[in-house]
Amino acid sequence: MSAKLCKLFVGGLNVETTEDGLRAHFEQFGALSDCVVVQNQTLGRSRCFGFITYSAPEEADAAMAAKPHVVDGKTVELKMAIAREDANNPDIVANVKKIFVGGVKDHIEAENLTEYFCQFGAVEKAEIISDKQTGRKRGFGFVFFEDNDSATKAVLTKYHTINGNKFTPMFYCAFIKVFNVWKNPSLAVLLQVLWVTFFLSLFFLSLSRW
């Protein structure tokens, strides 16, 4: 998963910028394992964007932190590259900055979320949701980042552990979609039937192997 955090998109390039020129600029932040300026094969010229891949996520973070970048006299756009399997995720494309964190144990506080997730970027705030009447924690919370790149890094790094508490975050919009499905009685029943059918099939499959 860390490989996804090493690759950056560079847009708005000067049409004259070459791969050597792009590499020369961005290697000041770390070793590049790959550097590509995408070409228009028909016209034989640059399409004015490319991709760079660092050897470690920390080097990509250093390049991101040094924005804005000027390459061959042009200020370029630098952001995390979106992998093909994530390209259809509307939450990445829509610049979502808020993530949902589920399965939060009672000993986890909002400060723990802030302290942990700041490794992915600046955190505006974090909150753990409690029942308004009883004050008891409801087992989930939200983290608000200052930019989508930070939120995306946190979500793409699927497995997280805070003080022994393991969980997988998701974008807030994705959480709302799941929540709304479960609020819909007909869809909820259908999903439950599908889950039961799936686990029963696994059970009988395991019996058949004995």
TrEMBL record:
Q: Which UniProt keywords apply?
A: Membrane, Repeat, RNA-binding, Transmembrane, Transmembrane helix
Q: Which GO terms describe its cellular component?
A: catalytic step 2 spliceosome
User: What molecular function terms (GO) are annotated for this protein?
Assistant: mRNA 3'-UTR binding
SMART domains registered for this protein in UniProt: RRM (SM00360)
Where do the RRM domain residues begin and end?
A: 6-85, 97-167
One GO BP: mRNA splicing, via spliceosome
What PROSITE patterns does the database record attribute to this sequence?
Answer: RRM (PS50102)
**Superkingdom, natural source:** Eukaryota
**Matching InterPro entries, A to Z?**
Nucleotide-bd_a/b_plait_sf, RBD_domain_sf, RRM_dom
Q: Which residues cross the membrane?
A: 187-207
Q: Name one Pfam family in it.
A: RRM_1
Entry protein name: RRM domain-containing protein
Question: Could you tell me which species this protein originates from?
Answer: Labrus bergylta (ballan wrasse)
